[in-house]
């Protein structure tokens, strides 16, 4: 069991940060790096998408420091390394080992005869890619994946390139992440982004945090929560697990608190619903609003700004408390208390992350949370609104730049006006469709602008099979990972600069731009010497691939775009709304804020109003066909969530500890309720196998995991991602979002066989 008195932040956090930096043997360079992180004229921290406060103080967090140290390592995987190891050998290594070997330093091509990656020149690499693409029968045989670290400039050129070729196949990491948030918010309030900014956290009376672990994944968010708690705002957490960071937090940046003397209690209320129980929680809160607190609802707001209230009220009234309690795992009293906290406050913010987005019913759940704000008018006024807390540092910007499988007509028209080609209208692929198409041999080529799709996507065996069927796979990356090893016939690795490194082209250090979770767009420029002279920026790599492939098919002066990224920003300003005077706007400290229609009470929905969603509470977490399989099992079926430890960044595993959860030196763990363990005859040292229950005949199993008793609702279990991605059935995706249901997988647990 984790230590009850432990708290996030404080001395332990600082020590761990410093240890991490020292271990990387680059202390000076890293401290310089940290000093420049998230400051005007420095680089944007590659850690997470939380916004920056503009106090100018030395700002960093432990996990940002780890991300920077990991990128700044002096270890290298060079030609000698690849001469030593075949790809088949490397595939046997762990994700942690692979990335620990160091930075990629030169372009490489896979040789199927020797089963090794071998150095090639950039010229050869670009020519080979262009030949590969131009040999495809249709541009729709190409998949263009983006991971959310890519800059606005690189992702804008990437989508220009894809659309000039004629495809909308832009699968991206947000398909596995906040896709449901974008869809639900667009449907409910007409804009697929959050409506608040960091300033709203200073004005809110109540802040709800659903399905999120900011202590680990957005540590700088704790500063905002901590200040809010200190000035008397009420923070209410809904989380399957009692996460330490949401309970007590000491800021590692305030000297007095370094000693942990003034740790602040963050959450005034902490509810632990069942996995996937949040729809029922929100529905229950709506029921209390409507049936018990009707006089406190904002009738003016409802009448002026919303559509569909009558049908919604009918649905809410028809939902029975018994169903709400069973599905949420909370009592009517708990939900009534939370509803009162919401309604009593004039200003409420709702934050959420993967605990909400990675389920079958995520889109409706997020719509239901939004309805609470529509009933009370807690949106579009200071201190109120919706806050999906994005993951990757520029994942929101990628989408703004046009990394979308189904762009709007307005977007296509703007593209045509600027680039003089007709962009494809046929919707393209998300991650789910892309992997399926590769698996079926309909798509033949994959380019990955960062990321690690092999490990990040669900159903590892199926995904790897799909990747191994590619005729050509191209990975633009900083570190070696599992995707690079899932080679088919032919593959290239193109090594790129990281966020922290100086990007010098055209005789000057270039800046790129990013957009944070609050729609703030700002510049970022690296300051450390690149890990190798052979590295190129992502921006240049994309521009060169486009230049070599498209030749005179598009009249763009690629050289001038590569020599000066402000020329790319001029193009962005012409195509993407809100980016007028882009180059001038990023000169302001902190950058500029993109207009948000819903925050200004304008509703870009079909009805022109914010929409209620009159749907019934779903019967179960899984589709009917799976429920009937579950009913046939002799042993208990648990719901598994897959989550992050404190020592990882998505598929990048920095270390084997998860300090805040009391875990040291291991990752093959399953967190279980003590009573569930007792029923299965397990103790804290038992080794177990975990198998998925699904409606197909595929066996999905992981073996030799250690059971660990934990404060988790009975019937729910938790394991780390990506080790348990093999358990997530490929077809187990969210309705409308197609996001893998990484937070609800039906499993059985048995003693390990050997
Ligand atoms: N250091 C670090 N920072 C990161 C990342 C990283 O890996 N490491 N990843 C980045 C990315 S891409 C993202 S998307 C974010 C992810 O940020 P998070 O969403 O915080 O990440 P997870 O670890 O998936 O945590 C999910 C949380 O939701 C809870 N939860 C799970 N299921 C449910 C549920 O059904 N209901 C409720 N109420 N709670 C539930 C879990 O107990 C856990 O606390 O972080 C970003 N920042
Ligand atoms: N089971 C389960 N699966 C999940 C999730 C979950 O909670 N549970 N979460 C999902 C979520 S929220 C996300 S966002 C996805 C993440 O999916 P991805 O974004 O695809 O994965 P990452 O692990 O972030 O990518 C790590 C790799 O990116 C490369 N890299 C790092 N920095 C740079 C850079 O600056 N440039 C370039 N070009 N490459 C770089 C390195 O080679 C590194 O190996 O995973 C999803 N998968
Ligand atoms: Mo994410």
From TrEMBL:
CDD domains the UniProt entry points to: MopB_CT_ydeP, MopB_ydeP
Highest taxon listed in the record's lineage: Bacteria
Alphabetized UniProt keyword annotations: 4Fe-4S, Iron, Iron-sulfur, Metal-binding, Molybdenum, Oxidoreductase
Gene Ontology cellular component list: membrane; oxidoreductase complex
GO biological process, one term: cellular respiration
Domain Molybdopterin dinucleotide-binding: 638-731
Cross-referenced InterPro entries: Asp_de-COase-like_dom_sf, MopB_CT_YdeP, MoPterin_dinucl-bd_dom, Mopterin_OxRdtase, Mopterin_OxRdtse_a_bac, Prok_molybdopt-oxidoreductase, YdeP_MopB
GO molecular function: 4 iron, 4 sulfur cluster binding; formate dehydrogenase (NAD+) activity; molybdenum ion binding; molybdopterin cofactor binding
Listed cofactors: Mo-bis(molybdopterin guanine dinucleotide); [4Fe-4S] cluster
Listed Gene3D superfamilies: 3.40.50.740, Dimethylsulfoxide Reductase, domain 2 (3.40.228.10)
Oxidoreductase listed as a keyword: yes
Molybdopterin oxidoreductase domain span: 103-478
Pfam name, any one: Molybdopterin
PANTHER family per UniProt: PROTEIN YDEP (PTHR43105:SF4), RESPIRATORY NITRATE REDUCTASE (PTHR43105)
Entry similarity comment: Belongs to the prokaryotic molybdopterin-containing oxidoreductase family.
Name of the protein described by the UniProt record: Oxidoreductase alpha (Molybdopterin) subunit
Organism: Marisediminitalea aggregata
């Amino acid at each position: 069991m984790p230590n009850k008195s432990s708290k996030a932040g404080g001395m332990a956090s600082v020590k761990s940060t410093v240890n991490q930096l020292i271990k990387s043997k680059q202390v000076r360079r890293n401290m310089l790096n940290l000093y420049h992180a998230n400051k005007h004229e420095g680089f944007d921290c590659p850690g997470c998408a939380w916004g920056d406060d503009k106090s100018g103080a030395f700002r960093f967090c432990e996990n940002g420091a780890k991300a920077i140290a990991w990128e700044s390592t002096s270890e290298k995987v060079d030609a000698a390394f690849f001469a030593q190891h075949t790809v088949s050998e490397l595939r046997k290594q762990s994700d942690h080992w692979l990335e620990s070997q160091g930075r990629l330093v030169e372009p490489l091509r896979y040789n199927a005869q020797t089963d090794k990656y071998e150095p090639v020149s950039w010229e050869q690499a670009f020519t080979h890619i262009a030949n590969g693409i131009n040999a495809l029968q249709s541009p729709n045989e190409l998949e263009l994946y983006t991971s959310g670290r890519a800059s606005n400039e690189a992702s804008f050129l990437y989508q220009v390139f894809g659309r000039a070729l004629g495809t909308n196949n832009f699968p991206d990491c947000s398909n596995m992440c906040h896709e449901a948030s974008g869809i639900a918010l667009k449907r409910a309030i007409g804009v697929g982004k959050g409506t608040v900014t960091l300033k709203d956290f200073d004005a809110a009376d109540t802040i709800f945090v659903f399905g999120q672990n900011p202590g680990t994944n957005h540590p700088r968010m704790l500063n905002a929560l901590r200040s809010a708690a200190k000035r008397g705002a009420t923070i209410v957490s809904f989380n399957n697990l009692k996460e330490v960071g949401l309970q007590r937090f000491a800021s590692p940046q305030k000297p007095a608190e370094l000693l942990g003397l003034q740790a602040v209690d963050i959450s005034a209320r902490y509810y632990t619903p069942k996995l996937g129980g949040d729809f029922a929680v929100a529905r229950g809160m709506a029921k209390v609003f409507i049936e018990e607190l009707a006089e406190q609802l904002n009738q003016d707001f409802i009448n002026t700004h919303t559509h569909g209230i009558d049908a919604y009220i009918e649905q809410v009234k028809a939902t029975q408390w018994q169903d709400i309690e069973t599905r949420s795992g909370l009592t009517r009293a708990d939900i009534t208390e939370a509803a009162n906290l919401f309604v009593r406050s004039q200003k409420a913010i709702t934050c959420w992350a993967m605990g909400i987005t990675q389920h079958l019913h995520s889109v409706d759940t997020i719509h239901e949370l939004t309805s609470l704000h529509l009933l009370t008018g807690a949106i579009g006024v200071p201190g109120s609104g919706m806050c999906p807390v994005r993951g990757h540092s520029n994942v929101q910007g990628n989408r703004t730049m046009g990394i979308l499988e189904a762009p709007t007509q307005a977007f296509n028209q703007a593209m045509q006006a600027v680039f003089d080609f007709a962009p494809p209208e046929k919707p393209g692929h998300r991650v789910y469709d892309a992997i399926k198409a590769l698996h079926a041999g309909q798509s033949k080529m994959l380019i990955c602008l960062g990321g690690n799709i092999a490990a990040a996507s669900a159903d590892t065996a199926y995904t790897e099979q799909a990747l191994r069927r590619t005729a050509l796979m191209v990975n633009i990356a900083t570190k070696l990972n599992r995707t690079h090893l899932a080679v088919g016939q032919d593959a290239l690795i193109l090594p790129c600069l990281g966020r922290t490194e100086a990007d010098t082209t055209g005789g000057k250090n270039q800046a790129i731009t990013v957009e944070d979770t609050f729609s703030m767009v700002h510049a970022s420029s690296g300051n450390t010497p690149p890990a190798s002279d052979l590295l190129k920026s992502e921006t240049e790599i994309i521009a060169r691939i486009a230049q070599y492939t498209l030749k005179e098919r598009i009249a763009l002066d690629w050289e001038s775009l590569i020599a000066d990224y402000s020329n790319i920003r001029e193009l962005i300003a012409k195509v993407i709304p809100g980016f007028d005077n882009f180059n001038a706007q990023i000169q302001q400290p902190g950058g500029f804020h993109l207009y948000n229609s819903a925050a200004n009470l304008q509703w870009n929905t079909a009805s022109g109003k914010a929409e209620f969603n009159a749907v019934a509470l779903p019967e179960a977490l899984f589709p009917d066909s799976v429920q009937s399989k579950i009913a046939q099992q002799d042993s208990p079926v648990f719901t598994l969530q897959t989550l992050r430890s404190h020592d990882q960044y998505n598929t990048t595993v920095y270390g084997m500890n998860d300090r805040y959860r009391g875990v040291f030196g291991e990752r093959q763990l399953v967190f279980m309720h003590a009573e569930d363990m007792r029923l299965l005859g397990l103790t804290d040292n038992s080794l177990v196998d975990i198998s998925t229950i699904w409606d197909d005949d595929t066996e999905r199993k992981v073996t030799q995991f250690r059971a660990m008793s934990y404060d988790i609702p009975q019937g729910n279990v938790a394991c780390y991602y990506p080790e348990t991605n093999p358990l997530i059935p490929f077809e187990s995706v969210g309705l409308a979002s197609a996001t893998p249901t990484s937070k609800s997988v039906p499993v059985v647990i048995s003693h390990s066989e050997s």
